[in-house]
# Entry
Amino acid sequence: MLKALGQVLFTGLQGPKYTTAESKGKDYEIRTYEAATWVSVTLKGTQGDAVMKEGFGKLFKYIQGENDKKVKMDMTAPVTGRVEPSADPASESSFTVSFFIPQEHQADPPTPSSPDVVIENRPEITVFVRTYGGFTNDQTVRAEHLKLVESLRRDGVQFCEEPFYRVGYDPPFKLTNRRNEVWLLQSGRA
# Structure
C-alpha cells in the first residue's frame, strides 16, 4: 500500500494516451484520448468531494489486490470523475470514479472482487480541458466548469454540457504544484 501511495508523489505515472489539437482559446486544450480500459465505480450523492473520496477508496482496494487474480497494480493518473448532475440540485447526482488500468493489464485486466467495481472499455473520446491548480472542492469544480463552458461558447465550439468530468492528478498530501482539470465532451460524444 505504501508503494502505491508513494508513487503518486512522483511524476511519470502511467496514464491514458492522447493527442492534442489546436484550440481557438488559450484558456483550454483539446485532447483526443485513445480507446482504453479503466476500472470504475458509479455512486450517487449530493456532495461530489465525498463521493469521489468513497469511489477512490473502492478503486484503490482493487489495485491493491481485491481482484480475481489477487494482483497488485501501480497507481495511475489521472483519477476521473464523470458527473451526471441531477435535474434537481437537491437530488443526488451520479458520479463514475475511474482509474486507468496500467498498460501491462490493458488487454486482460483482473476482474474486480467487489460487485460495485467494473471494468470499463472506454472508446476514443475528444474532450475540452481546463486545467487549474491548488486544492479542489465542489465549489472550485463548479466554478472551473462554468469558466470552461463560457470559453467554449465564446469560441463557438460545439460541446456537451453534461456529463462533465472532474479530474485529479495528485494525492491529498501533495501540497504544491497540484494539477486538476475539468473536461467537457466534444458534441456528439457521450
The mean pLDDT is 92. DSSP finds three helices and nine strands in the chain. The CA atoms of residues 17 and 114 lie 27 Å apart. Residues 138-154 form the longest helix (17 residues).
